[in-house]
Design brief:
homodimer; mainly alpha; Arc Repressor Mutant, subunit A; Tetracycline Repressor, domain 2; 67% helix; DNA-binding
DNA sequence: AACAAAATTAAACAACTGTTTAATTTAAAC
DNA sequence: GTTTAAATTAAACAGTTGTTTAATTTTGTT
């Protein structure tokens, strides 16, 4: 009857209606979380019938999976170019951190969702795309740090695996306690908060990582 | 009739039944998240009637609030004592980080809950206890850093507000991507993972913060 | 124009949600 | 033992949830 193929694992192409739904879902999931977002609110916001979501995606969870693969499609190759660039290792670190933050900041929605929905004991939802992405990131970072170590600029007793938790952890923690820090740092307006991330927070993280890499105790 | 005072802001004392409920709630909230945990499942696990939760705590959200204040009671005082201790600022930083991690690690449940439930745009749930806790933490940290700055040990252009996001963010990010790091660092057994946190991760964070505080660029 | 497939709809469904009710049992005080 | 308040219960309540049905409209093909 309604012969829709739900598991289009290799190459998913979404039509206009599906993309419309995905965009609304992204906004609402990011705003309220997966559980607190009803498919009725999605359908209402997207101005489509509730049944269309089941019709197109199969279920609410499948909708989330589709959303993830829709948004993390081209993300993978972003960092690889950087480590190949003709820059000093320390400047590469600066650029890498800036790239990280900018990238995540521009795709707040999906990263917020990922951060939440896949970190809980939410083992029902498993996405291997995410694992590949993380491993790719680690590889690029390792290349840069090894280069710096060979040049004698970076210390050699660094646990490289713990660098990105510090970068990303700091950023996410700051974002996730947004209202607290808005209040604390008097960043009431959205643009102020955004600006603070792009300048002070980015600089803080760069400073931190560089200090860790260079400082001799 | 059922004259129970729900807003016992200053001094809340819980009876055995309430503590029993709180403990079960903590486990289930941490395992499945706040939304995915029904009060029926709590009541079933705690072997009490559903109505008892409303009876004792007022509502599901109030239960969560009670849980938070129940678990974060004495952290505040531990930190306050630390900054008053007779130690060099740099050793206080070490101790503070160790205290943080140990504390959070021993109370995984509640911190996992906090991390998730209050980070989303979950503005319905507002807990002033949490805000006080964070501000208290910041105050203790500020005291230590200021002391170090006055002694000429720490640099003066540090944004103190961004220190604890780095400490906590790193720790949480590591924990929330547990399975990834277990795989990456070959910490398959639980005790190995725990041990890694207590040694390598703690050391990494201490090293990072100290480097940031001391390093002259 | 006629037909079939796809898209869209309103309504129903069944299960679950947090909370409240009113009745009953337990405990404490006198 | 009686009285009174607290604790506990099963049941009902009112709402929401994700999903499915079956009917209707739209679209594309011949």
């Amino acid at each position: 009857m309604f012969n829709i193929i739900f598991n289009m694992t290799s190459e998913e192409t979404f039509n206009d209606k599906q993309i419309q739904i995905l965009q609304v879902a992204e906004t609402l999931f990011a705003e309220n979380g997966f559980d607190r977002t009803s498919i009725r609110s999605i359908s209402k916001e997207a101005k489509i019938n509730v049944a269309m979501i089941s019709y197109y995606f199969g279920s609410k969870e499948k909708l989330l999976e589709s959303l993830v693969s829709y948004r993390t499609k081209d993300l993978k190759f972003q960092l690889e170019n950087l480590s190949a660039e003709n820059l000093e290792p320390i400047d590469k670190i600066d650029k890498l951190i800036e790239l990280y933050i900018n990238r995540i900041n521009c795709n707040k929605g999906i990263y917020r969702i990922l951060h939440f929905e896949f970190a809980v004991g939410n083992n029902d939802i498993k996405i291997e795309v995410l694992d590949e992405l993380r491993k790719g990131n680690l590889k690029s970072l390792t290349a840069i740090i090894k280069e710096g170590q060979n040049k004698g600029v970076f210390r050699k007793d660094i646990i490289i695996e713990l660098i990105s938790p510090t970068i990303l952890g700091t950023f996410f923690h700051f974002n996730m306690n947004k209202s607290f820090f808005q209040n604390l740092l008097h960043l009431n307006k959205e643009e102020q908060f955004e600006s603070y991330i792009k300048t002070s927070l980015t600089k803080h993280i760069q400073q931190t990582i560089k200090a860790l890499l260079i400082y001799e105790s």
